[in-house]
Amino acid sequence: MTRPESSVTAVSSAAPRNARQLWVLWRYWMVREFKTRYAGSVLGFAWAFVQPLASLAIFYVLFGLVLAVRVPGLDVNNGYLLHLLAGLAVWLPFTDAIGRGVGCLAAYEDFLRKQPMPAEILPAVSVGGSLLVLGIGYGLLLVLSVGQGVGPYASLAWLPVLVLAQIALTYGLTLLLSMAHFLWRDVGSMVAFGLQLWFYLTPIVYPLSQVPEQFHRWFLFNPLACLVLMVQGAVLHMPVPPGTPVALAVWVVLLGGGGWWFFRSMKSALGEAL
Amino acid sequence: MTIRFEGIEKTYMVYARPQDRLWEWVTRSQRHRVHVALTGVDFKVQAGETFGLIGENGAGKSTLLKIAAGTIRPTRGQVTQEGRVAALLELGAGFHPEESGYDNIRFMAALHGLEGVAMEDFIVRATAFSELTPETLERPVKTYSSGMFMRLAFAAATAIDPDVLIVDEALSVGDLHFQKKSLNRILELRERGATVLFCSHNLYQVRSLCQRAAWVHGGRIQAIGATEDVVTAYESHERRRYAHLRVESNEAAEKKDAAPAATTSSGAPS
Asked: Which residues make Cβ contacts (< 8 Å) with residue B113, sequence separation at least 6?
């Protein structure tokens, strides 16, 4: 017998939900998440700004001032700060979405069994929740880089495409990891550790030019590195290694499509744990 | 407004260990046991009909209701229903204990894709049914008594004015007031032409509410038709099932008469 999904003839129209209904639910759920996340805190909504700024400050003091990392090819005051900001604008929303998204299916397991609702919306809520950090990061990057006299370059026109690529990548990976975590609870612990390692394998706190030349092409195997390099290229006009745009496109298709496919093929396991 | 089950079969894949699923996925060779929860379910609930499901625990009633509600998909076959569906598979499923009553009602409205005026309308209807004061509704749900919680949950689940209502055992919980109130709400929906599919162990309730019923036994539809016939068939099956208990207790009583000093604990096997 093959796996039943391939032989399914079931067409469940049991929850006839149109796109508008999902859109309403997604937005409501996101607002709810924001409210509950900052409920009962004194600073409230301001935490959304404090957290990214704090990580920016920590890395800037440690690597920019204490270790005095310089970015060749970015000859302005605070060049390192801009480089760091470009990296964090990509990294922080990514890790935010993954970190909260991994456990979303496991947390709402009982809910999914009792309420007819497409499960895809749960990872989508996690990714949606990270859009605020994403907006703050990119906004700050644009303001600071223009304020420092870097750009604005015509290549900024690529930025919306890159942001879309980032969202697709993040959503695909969140779909993949949330489902994997639901099936095998080891995934959550692995992700927590993996994200730390991944951060240092991505040229965020160090510029790629500080890495020996022969390792550069290995960075193409890191989707986040491709994205960071492209953003640094578009906003700061830093050199982008050849092949990066192609690698990024491949990663978006691979992770976005693959995550979706894996989620769909394992979806029947949701709501029917015996 | 009808619910149509066509050749429904539901099997579960049971994995002894979580890694078995991983190996199966990687190697594509079967490493699970198949558990058949439902098979050969093929019937139609007519528009405006109240249909009851009866049967023992574990017979597959809840699975069938979940398939009807759309929270799980059938392995084979097809289920179709028209109109707005409200599913009451468990009272308060999806409620957040830390949030206020109002916020939970709003969330239920959002689950149905309502916003703006439609959501306000939903809230008004739900609060009216729940009999909770605005002050109470501002408090987190975790502070509610179980009766208050059930009223709110039932109110939020049925405030959508469904065309199809699917209820799993919800009516057998709560005090008399709640049971009567929720029953009235169901009758009211039925008056308006809603289709109701529900399961219950309360055979009196099934008899008085349903036009037709089905007896689910061991994952199959054992009997289907007019309520009285089906319920009677189920009752006589239950009586047969426990007949041996009556025989045993009679024997035990006889034994006791014969030898009063003998053990008395064999009288009520559970």
From this structure: A17, A18, A20, A21, A22, A24, A25
